[in-house]
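Students often ask what a holo structure prediction actually looks like on paper. The answer is less mysterious than it sounds. You provide the chain, you provide the ligand, and the output is a string of discrete structure tokens encoding the 3D arrangement of the protein together with zinc ion.
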Amino acid sequence: MTELPARRLLLVHAHPDDESINNGTTMAKYAAEGARVTLVTCTSGEEGEVIPPALAHLAPDREDRLGPHRAGELAAAMKELGVTDHRFLGGPGRFRDSGMMGAEQNHRDGAFWNADVDEAAAYLVEIVRAVRPQVLVTYDPDGGYGHPDHIQAHRVAMRAADLAAEPDFRPGLGRPHTIDKIYWNRVPRSVAEEGFARLRAAGVFPRTADIGDVPGVVDDTLVTAEIGGADHARRKVAAMRAHATQIAVEGDYFALSNDLGQPILATEYYQLVRGAGGAPAGRREDDLFAGVTS
Ligand SMILES: [Zn+2]
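The corresponding structure tokens follow.
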């Protein structure tokens, strides 16, 4: 059996670009420190809107070639973050982007939103049992902001964490494994407010998003961990730039295809929802592996 690195972090995301926006700093930090960072992306983001006019032909209502293109963007982003283990759930193209909530694509054959949660989770169980992460990062039950693929990614990740530990569940998928700590992506409300105030003062984008558009914003008191570092944050920005069909980066700010400015959050925030925290009471953890002994 090949020896596993001492620290192993698994992140589960809905589309290529979500990992860089939400966790780029964190992924760069742990990759740089020699931890094994494994990214599982559930869909190829085929239903995304395309920002650069020169690539508009890739869109789903034209050539429908956005999925493979975004896989290339994801690979480039992972290079920026120093992450070598990135996979699509069930392999590339297994689950398709479901589009925004209420779109007719939600119910299409193969749409991730339509997938049976246990069946989709089984693909992740196999990865969990092979990689044996101590820490899992994913979204909250609302997927951060209600996108069907983000909600489904949450369900699949949480279900896989349970099933992977079950000795009776599909023994052929590997030896059972219990993940020590599970975190949901969060943004403290005060940080989001401060970021938007900075953005408005900078006047970089003519129009700005608002706090309701930022996934995972919660009261500051719910946030239990924060991960920062200027060098890692620079790599996050480079990774975000690699997702050029989806993200326009301007300095410390970015916009999605709706062209509404948002602050780039150099420091990333988490809420520990399973496992024991490693920080003294009332303090935030500065290491997702704090307290992990396995
Ligand atoms: Zn997404």
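The chain has a mean pLDDT of 96.
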